[in-house]
Amino acid sequence: MSGERRGTRAAHEALPPQLREAVDAFADHLAGVRNRSAHTVRAYVTDLVSLLDHAGRMGCADLSELDLAVLRSWLAKQRTMGAARTSLARRAAAARTFSAWAHRAGLLTADVAAPLASPRARRDLPTVLRADQAAALMDAPRVRAVGQAAARADAPHVRSTAEGPTTGDGPTASASPSACGASGDSRGGAAEGTASGQEGPGGEDAALLRDRVLLELLYGTGVRISEACGLDVADVDHARRVVRVLGKGGRERAVPYGVPAQRALDAWLSRGRPALAGPGSGAALLLGARGGRLNPTTARRIVAGYADAAGLPRTTPHGLRHSAATHLLEGGADLRAVQELLGHSSLASTQIYTHVSVERLRAAYRQAHPRA
Fold first, then answer.
1. CATH code of the domain covering residue 148
2. Is residue 114 one of the residues assigned to a domain?
3. What is the number of structural domains in the chain?
């Protein structure tokens, strides 16, 4: 358990019983009624415990004494402690959500946080790969496989290994991509034995086949990393070339994928997954080296490792999502279609990619036009 989570647990236990019950009931509401993810529930509860702890230090012994002045004081303290604008905006949203729920539940006589303003978070333009850079990243597992095959041919008496430099937290981003890909599963991404050497019937390294399909799905569909790792085998419709994705808020959508992703899926399902599958695999599409569902933290290391090996800028799964959306719009896709593909509930979230395209157009104009 991280230090922050231990601190939140201690602060929660130190709250008066009435406030602890309110926090627990609010968490149940977020998870059971609002259908929020475990990550969102944990973040909102952490913010709420911080708020109530601050209120107690200001002399509020009861929830009914919570008012707008206390809320503003709490946010001001967070700002002086160096919280980013995005964090302040989230904490203000958590306070408003809790206040509205507590008012409806009869715990507050008024929705005291309704007038609470949020600091406007600066929306930086996402970093995206060029189309040729994305193609190089998709080809990185094949390049790695060719290199391993050549090494085995040159030194057949030496057992090939994909292990790379590690830290106390497992393989680093600059380690061999296969080492990154073999480092974890659904049990938390702890370091484990390398999957290199676990070959499918065709002789291919199972981890490399898994890495290839992971990259193709992330870039080919633009899904979030949590959505990709949450896919089951039955979610893939091979006939229509679409995957069924369960997104934020439990919203389900169908996302198409292309021929390269189909080839990667066929190779993984026929020759790679059987080599890694075990009793704990269940229906998971993507597996870690221990046979459990691939962990998002491990998947991030895989992407970063291959980007580093290919000499590309620092790349994350979300960066591939940004790249997919930008390339779709640059290719003439409709903004509404991209919104549906990405699973955005609001078109405003998708519109940032139009700014990315315009900025790239401006850069090309400044570089190429004599009157720029």
1. 1.10.443.10
2. no
3. 2
238 a catalytic residue: no
Catalytic residue among 20, 248, 253, 360: 248
How far apart CA 280 and CA 302 sit, in angstroms, is 22
Cβ-contact 242, 308 below 8 angstroms? no
What tens digit of pLDDT does each residue of 127-146 get? 789 999 999 999 999 888 88
0.70 exceeded by pTM: no
Give 272's DSSP letter.
Answer: I
pLDDT tens digits, 315-354:
999 999 999 988 988 888 888 888 888 888 777 777 777 7
Question: Using CA atoms, how far apart are residues 320 and 261, in angstroms rounded to an integer?
Answer: 14
Task: State the Cα–Cα distance between residues 364 and 350, nearest whole angstrom.
Answer: 23
> Would you tell me the crossing angle of helices 296-309 and 206-221 to the nearest 10 degrees?
90
Q: Is 157 a catalytic residue?
A: no
Output the CA angle 126-48-74, nearest 5 degrees.
Answer: 85
Catalytic, 318? Answer yes
Active-site residue, selected from the candidate residues 90, 91, 321, 322 = 321
Residue 336 falls in the annotated catalytic set: no
Partners of 242 in the β-ladder: 237, 256
Taking alpha carbons only, the member of 17, 82, 1 closest to residue 9 is 1
